[in-house]
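So, could you explain the following?
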Amino acid sequence: MRNTATFLGLAIVAISCTEKPKSPKGMIVEYPESPIVEAADTLFDQVVPDPYRWLEDDLSEETTNWMEAQNEVTFAYLDQIPYREKLRKRLEELNDYEKIGAPFVRGNYTYFFRNDGLQDQSVLYRQNENDKDEVFIDPNTFSEKGTTSLGGLHFTKDGQFLAYQISEGGSDWRKVIVIDVDTKKEIDDTLTGIKFSNISWKGNDGFYYSTYEKVEGSELSAKTDNHKLFYHKLGTPQSEDKVVFQGADGPRRYVSGSISENGYFLIITAAVSTTGNELYIKDLRNPRSSIVRLVDNFDNNHRIVHVEGETLYISTNLDAPNRRLVKVNARVGTPDNWVDFIPEGDLPLNVSSGAGKFFATYLKDATSQVMQYDLKSGLEWEIELPSIGTAGGFSARWEDDIIYYSFTNYVYPSTIFTYNPKTGDSELFRASKVMFDPSAFESRQVFYHSKDGTKIPMVITYKKGLELDGNNPTMLYGYGGFNISLTPTFNTSIVAWLEQGGVYAVANIRGGGEYGRAWHDAGIRTQKQNVFDDFIAAAEYLIKMDYTKPARLAISGGSNGGLLVGACMTQRPELFAVALPAVGVLDMIRYHTFTAGAGWAYDYGTAEDSEEMLNYLLGYSPYHNLKNGQNYPATLVTTGDHDDRVVPAHSFKFAARLQSVNDGPNPSLIRIDMDAGHGAGKSTSMSINETADKFAFALFNMGIKDL
């Protein structure tokens, strides 16, 4: 169905460096040259032009030169904002406090992460039997600029060996290094080319991991869709690693393997999309056992939470859109033998385990309720939380005695508690040291109606005493996809926005998981417009209730949230003063041709599915819906040159086209972080600088002259 026109050279048509009119803020922006090159896709006899496709080539000199020129223009603009440095320093002050994570015991040591304040990467410490702290792994030594991060820790059951993953420049591709924990010395060759992988040890002899077949072309943008599970035996070269599992009837884009805590079974999940998976097990007690498929389709999500003897406890949304926990004997583990242990309820359910118990976390209007269950007696009690907000971390080894969990909301800094599952008592373990006075701020949940009448929750946070006069600088944030729920979470950086009299609003729009699978499915494929309507209605509510006005309203979102911002600013450009699409999916016709993008088809559909789907995607694809003659909001696109989740070509092409067609005075800029990826592992300094630039850009383009 797809025919692709070839490039005819980079100079067929060129947009010269044109000087835009003066913005209302008095700045003149002269954009770099972005040549138009003839390229197109022909789908279902429809020609879809793609004049900036040359920017998809991340290995080309032309793309590199374009990135450098765009950054030069962007930072020259940002340098002129008088309070940008003041915001950056305030963000530094707010983030400059000691952060210590919950401890965990492995072997003879207790481990914990600590950041002194502004360290680019948190350091892994450990305590020995004498309770003396020592640095175990310091990721800040991995690279000079702090752009190489620790991507995962995987200890053997006895704690003797550790396999840890590192990410360079924010890439999803990882290296795996194995060390002896007592000596800290490497005991094996470094494994390379690992992506989207758990690591699960089989005794101390070796481990299972997952990765893709070697890609052709750019490692950062080439399509990856054949994920396989391997076994690596310590002391042997990676080239000899054996494939344990791959799709028998075609490639699987996401494969994961883990060994049950009791060591009985290898558990394998396999998926072709981010929603729905097959489920397999292999009995490791019998060397001749084969891999047995328990679930043979991709229609639902299934996850083995715990194995007790030969009984599997499986979290599933099969016949339960809000999910349930079932149990079954592994020998007859197919769905027709499943028996409910925690039945489906009215609220979305997530189940974790630890310290001999199950913890059922329910979402009630996007906030946490946690129930404790016992294997024999069932429901024991509801766990009392400090307030209304988000609880996380109710997970540990089955043999542990104590659980650590965190609690937070928009005005409650993340705080760690210890929990005793025998008594139900929680005790403060470590309070946040952030310099923040919760009593000075207010956070309230409201409900508004979307275009089709659906009731949508939104949380609005601001300084107490805020005057609702319609003049408050407001940041509206959303996501709306992939069954991801936006629950109340404290963000130190947002404090800097609130201190300026700003309003911060988070809308729990459809496409997320706040109300279960039905809420998710109401915002996918040909229902995707619901997501944008929900977000636009949130903006209209904030204006109607006099929190703000269009000239003081910014919209922000990342990844799928970047798509959200891109779609809303092209559909309703007059409604927003500022748009901040970050690492966004902005070309909906070609997204599935890059890296693992085809795995997002459950949410988006693809342009090759049908003519109806093609036309629907063309109807909202941000890159394709930028039009001449429009006055678009002041826009700061952000991305990283090493983003191999949502490749930066999305942002490059969108920015180039926006600069070409925008007839209004508002700036259309792109800020590209070098040696940065989709967000995970980004250094503290890079995060602070990016946030300062976003806030300064937003406030300046709202007409705020001084802080």
